[in-house]
Each structure stands twice: as structure tokens, then as C-alpha cells.
Amino acid sequence: MRGGALAPAEPLPSTRLLAASLKLARGTVVEAYEQLIAEGFLESQRGAATRVASTLSVAAPTRRVLKPTSAGGRCRLPQSSLPEPAARFAQIAREFSPLPAVPFAISVPVGLTAPADIWRRLGNRIRARGAAAPAGYEDPKGALPLREAIAAYVRKSRSVQCDVAQVIITSGTQQGLYLASQVLLGARDEAWVEDPAYRGLTAILENNGRGSAMIRVPVDEEGLDVAAGMRLAPHAKAAFVTPSHQYPLGMPLSMARRSALLGWARTHNAWVVEDDYDSEFRYEGYPFPALQSSDPDRVIYLGTFSKILFPSLRLGYVIAPGDLADAFCGARVLMDRHPPNADQHVLAAFMAQGHLERHIRRVRNVYAEHRAHLIETLGELLPSEIAWVQPGDQGMHLVLWLARALDDREVATLAARAGVAVRAVSPMFSQGNGRPGLVLGFGGFSRTQMEGAARRLAEVIRNAIRRGAKPRRK
To answer: Which of 222, 320, 344, 462 supports an S-S bond with 324, CB 3.0-4.6 Å?
Structure first.
């Protein structure tokens, strides 16, 4: 019927004849006819033949060429037949596919960086009884014990000024960035975004209809160039920044730039979205306090536990100015009502009993050692005219710049074939401003694993140089 082989109002054979022809029980055919009648494909009148519904609209038959999937299983339609947004979101799925848990993937909780066994024991006890037991719908802002623990933690560790009512639990920083874009930006509003920037942020703005409003502001050794932002878009409504540890390059936003950024926001009634994603991991000196501490009424503060504990936890938080807290809560309701409840209570107990601070101290020491050893190893394996490390003293990754002759995306692909997980830096820049480089995470890998991966990566880079043009000197 759908293919046009049976026309509207065309009579069908009786159930008895069709059953005999197909060698089926008559009851099976009767059930099939009754189902098709119920769905509106057939019509039947007492004393008359069952017919194809006269009102059935049949599209002209088309020939569809089906292509096998990459898995070799079910066939799929050609891309040209899919909705335009589907192609964009499929590309995002490919771009954000997780790296395998091998060096140099970021935040892999193995070995010394895995949470202590107390997490498992605490989780088993709290899920078995009490607040983490199955329940009905909960507060969209999240579990109160966790929000209380977060408010106390950020006041102590990051000088953030807030109360519990301003804390909204999210499924990680990615959701916090999405909520901020929904709450802060109108249809024609512009937003400053660092250049380079976290690809998860630029993908959000590109795919929610705000790509043209994204103003890419260059970054230098002091972080976001506020003066450049004011020249490019002085009346922007928001600035998305990573002031403690610029992603991906690593430098902090200088005190002078911080003052200039907040001054611009006050003057133009704009908002600053502070992504403080790995401020806990500074290896030399003391970190700057959160930008939010200097202007809590103008800064939306984002934090996450995915990096400091483990990514599959999928818990983060937004600390919104009081006037915006209900707006962020409402935007979150439309996404998934509220975050899963059980792990919130486990994390609240983990923090309240002091386990999180002990975990951070332990992991910080591991990462500091891994970072120093990786920088030394790469320096021994690769001459500086081919590759060199971006200076920095914070974070869970480093950037390895590559000679201009190299395509970092191709190098990342070749490295994956050699069993090394890296991300290319150039896609994080705006079009035409990219530089070839690789993001290398420390993870919880052993020294032997790190050294072996560094050798394989160095060989991939040397081979790429041999195949390509002569590299420029740094």
C-alpha cells in the first residue's frame, strides 16, 4: 500500500483464500486484517470485500538507495534525505566521540588518580538507605545537601560569594554553558568568546542559531584581550571566559585584564560567564581567586566535578547571581527536570566528610609529577623546531605546538592508529586563525605508559615532517 502496489479502494482477497495461498492459519490473516483496519489502512463492510481504505494517500513510489552502515549492520538512508540539522548534529557526535582510555586522554581516573575506595563504600551505604533511595521528583536546582556542600567548598577554595539559593546542579560544565547561552542571549545579542576556545562552547553557539553573534576575541599571554573585545563588539551582552586557566592554552587572565573585563560588563550591563573548570590544579604559587569574587552580581560561575573526580559522574554546578537563579533553574527544568538524585547525595557526603579535599591534594601531586616528566620526555624526543610545549603551571593537560608545516588533525589521526590519544588544537580557533598543536592530558597513567606513548607520538610527528614540507623554526 505504501509503495503503490495496492491502490486506494482496491479489494483484497478473503482471509480464507489468502491464508490458503500463503499456507498460514486463517486466524493469523484475520488478526493482520483487523490490525490494518484499526490503523486506517483497510476498510471493511458487512457482506462486502475488505478493501484498501479509499482515503489512503499513497506517495509516488521512489527508489531509495540504501547504504550499509560502518558497522556492516542495518542499511541507512543517504545523507541527502536527512533533515539539515541532523547532518550538523551527526558531525558533532563524530567530533565529540570520547578518546580511548590511553595516554594522552584527559581526566582518565585510573591508578593513582582514581577516587579512593571510600567512594564505592560510601555510595553503597547511601544508596541502600536514606536520601539516595528511590524517590519522586525533586528540586530542579538539585539536592540541598550537595548545594550546601558546594557553596561551602567554593567559598573556602575559590573565594566565591554565594548562598545555597544561587547554586544549580548541572550535568557538567557543558550543560552549564548551554544554560548560560539560553538565559543570557537574545535573538540578536552578541557574545565574546575566546580565540581559541573550548569546542563544546563554540558548538553550542553555532547550533542554537547564535553562530553569527559569536565574536571571537584573541588571547595572548595575559589571557583574553579585553581591549580587542571592546573594539570588536562593545555592546555584547555576555563574555564566556576561562580566567583561571585559559582553555586550551593555559595562561591565567591577568589582574589588569580582570579589572578591565568587569569594568566593561558593568558599564554595558553585560554578563561574564566564568568557566573555572580545573582551577584546583595549580602547581606553582597560589591561584588567583575566582573572578566571581570581585563582582558576584555580574558573573555567572561554572564548576564541575568531572575533571577532579571522574567524567562519568556528570555533575557540575552553576552559581548564578541572585536575580538570575530562577531563570537558570527554569531553563534547566526544560532540559531534564532535575539531575539524577542518588550520586548527588553520595557526592554531598563525600565532600562533607573531607574526602574531596584529600583527593584533590593527592591527585594534584600526581599530576604535577606527570606534567614535569612529560615535558622533560617530549623535550628529549622532539627538537624545538618541530614541536614545543606551551608554557604554563596549571591544569590537567598541556599543549604541544607543532611546526606550521604540519596538519594537527592528520597527526591526531595517525597518533590514534599508533595507540596514542590526542586532540587537535586548530579546530578550537576561529576560521583562518588556527595554529597546529595537540592537547595532551596526564591522566592516571603510569610513567612507563606515558613514556611509551610519548615515543610513539614523537615518531608519528617525525614521520609527518619527513612526508611534508621543511618545518619553520620556532
So the answer is: 320
